[in-house]
Design a protein that fits this description.
The structure is a single chain. The chain is α/β, with parallel strands linked by helices. Helices cover about 65% and strands about 10% of the residues. It has 17 helices and nine strands. Helix 6 links the parallel strand 3 and strand 4. The termini are far apart.
Length: about 550
């Protein structure tokens, strides 16, 4: 190769010498403008001698200038077109077997994110910084274990370059704290370390879709990674092949090789395919086998170069990898045959949240309805209880009123009986006094007759007086006595006091306005007079 380049440069130099020789001959044989100009000025000998010497000087200067320009152009063109490879510092050409890298590189995948724990595969660059993709507790433990392995190896990175994905940021912060790396040495990378976007399959179940993508790359990507493109999406998520990610990684390495020299650089990727793909580029591995070098969550690989990468590869894929590819082919076939069945996990989650929210809303509504019915039932029951209580109270009051009415009626009857007894007693007294007055009058009028029969008159007087006194002293009345448990009727003979008799007489006077007692008294007196034949006969 070098010999052919040398021969080509000699040939270009020979052509340049021939070109300069031809230019010299042309200058010698061609008429000169200076000669025509000096012929017009032949009257001056001094000017004529100057005119004769100028053409030869111009020809020599023109020849030398033309030869130099031709040789320089030929040498420059030969060197640029057929010379050795450029020694530009930042230019990285893969694989890195002839020219070693200027820095030592360690590749690391971030720990498990919250979305990965939930089996969600997120690749949209717009959502990588969301805290829903932040490092989980499991991921933090994975990162600390990787740092311990790095410390045991005696390695201490001087530069940490990390993706702007939330999990990568958290991982870089933990690494910086473990190795006491300053913030000026923790450098974010804005887009060159982004994961490969999978288009319509974004936010799909990771365990299922990842195996399908591996199978697609193994069967369709090819050694250069230009095949195997995921289906496009409508939400702005890119649909990329492996070759699209190769462009970003190439630019990343060129930048790092330009900025740093002799540093130990730790690259923190958000996914496992990014560091595996860069390893394939460095080691010259066909890109359709990239997933054989895929990184696990929190995994770190030290001193990545051409030799270390090829040491990891085997001639044939491992049985575990072959099994994954077989499952992935079946999943890929299902995804392509039924594209609508594979739903976005985010949309499914949103739908589940909507269903859950709707169920909660219905449950709250049913609860409110049951509560309202219960309240209405309690209110109705309360009103019914109040109505029943009021009805019972009304019945009780009515019963009490009836009892009071019965008591009042009984009391009135007892009072009437008492009044009747008093009236009878008063009547007897009245009759007795009337009878006594009548007898006295009769005795006075019939003194002569009485004198004739003194014995009969004295017996009659004694008889009337005895009857009157007995009637006045022994009058039986009924008295009603009330106690705590109710009322009861007592039959007890009472002795009429004079004051009590006077009160009964007053009551009789009041009752006389209502009842016609005169006829009754007269009838009673007549009956008494008629029943006593002795009195009537004696009065006659």
């Amino acid at each position: 190769m070098k010999r052919s380049v040398f021969l080509l440069q000699a040939f270009i130099l020979l052509l340049s010498w021939v070109n300069s020789s031809l230019s010299l001959l042309m200058h010698r044989n061609s008429p000169c403008v200076h000669r025509r100009r000096t012929a017009l000025l032949s009257h001056s000998s001094h000017e004529d001698n100057s005119a004769q010497s100028e053409p030869f000087d111009d020809s020599r200067r023109s020849l030398v200038r033309t030869a130099l320009v031709t040789l320089s152009v030929a040498f420059t063109a030969g060197s640029s077109l057929f010379g050795c490879e450029a020694d530009a510092r930042g230019l990285v050409r893969f694989p890195c077997n002839d020219k070693p890298l200027l820095n030592t590189y360690h590749f690391m995948r971030a720990g498990s994110s919250l979305l990965e724990i939930e089996d969600v595969w997120s690749t949209n660059p717009l959502f990588l910084t969301n805290r829903e993709a932040a490092l989980s507790e499991q991921g933090e433990e994975e990162v600390r274990q990787a740092c311990n392995l790095l410390k045991k190896s005696g390695l201490n990175p001087s530069i940490v370059r990390y993706s702007l994905a939330a999990s990568s940021i958290d991982t870089a912060n933990i690494v910086g704290a473990e190795f006491n790396i300053g913030r000026d040495r923790l450098v974010p990378e804005f887009n060159y370390m982004d994961p490969r976007a999978i288009g319509r399959w974004d936010f799909s179940p990771k365990n299922v879709t990842e195996e399908a993508v591996w199978a697609m790359d193994a069967d369709e990507a090819g050694p250069s990674g230009r095949g195997g493109r995921p289906p496009p999406n409508e939400d702005g998520t890119p649909s990329e092949t492996l070759s699209d990610q190769v462009v970003r990684l190439t630019n990343l390495m060129s930048v790092l090789e330009t900025l740093y020299s002799g540093d130990e650089i730790l690259l923190v990727f958000p996914d496992g395919t990014g560091p595996a793909l860069l390893s394939c580029l460095i080691g010259g591995i066909p890109l359709d086998r990239v997933h054989e070098l895929n990184f696990r969550s929190g995994e770190i690989r030290e001193n990545v170069d051409y030799s270390s990468v090829n040491a990891l590869m085997t001639e044939l894929p491992s049985p575990y990898y072959s099994e994954i590819i077989q499952r992935g082919r079946r999943e890929l076939s299902l995804l392509r045959e039924n594209p609508d069945e594979q739903r976005n996990v985010k949309e499914l989650k949103f739908e589940k949240e909507q269903v859950f929210a709707e169920a909660q809303r219905k449950e709250r509504q049913e609860l409110e309805e049951r509560k309202a019915r219960q309240n209405e039932l309690e209110r109705t029951q309360k009103l019914e209880d109040e109505r029943i209580q009021k009805e019972e109270q009304r019945k009780e009051r009515q019963l009490q009123a009836q009892q009071r009415e019965k008591e009042r009626k009984r009391m009135r009857e007892n009072k009437n009986n008492s009044i009747g007894g008093a009236v009878a007693a008063g009547s007897i007294l009245f009759l007795a006094s009337t009878s006594a007055n009548t007898v006295d009058k009769n005795l006075e009028q019939n003194a002569t007759i009485a004198e004739a029969s003194n014995v009969d008159a004295e017996e009659l007087e004694v008889t009337l007086s005895s009857a009157a006194l007995e009637d006045a002293e022994e009058v039986k009345v009924s008295s009603v006595v009330e106690d705590e448990t109710g009322s009861r009727e007592l039959d007890q003979p009472l002795t009429l006091e004079p004051a009590l008799v006077a009160n009964h007489i007053d009551d009789l006077i009041d009752l006389e306005e209502t009842y016609d007692w005169g006829d009754t008294w007269l009838g009673t007196i007549n009956e008494i007079m008629n029943e006593d034949p002795d009195v009537s006969s004696k009065s006659e």
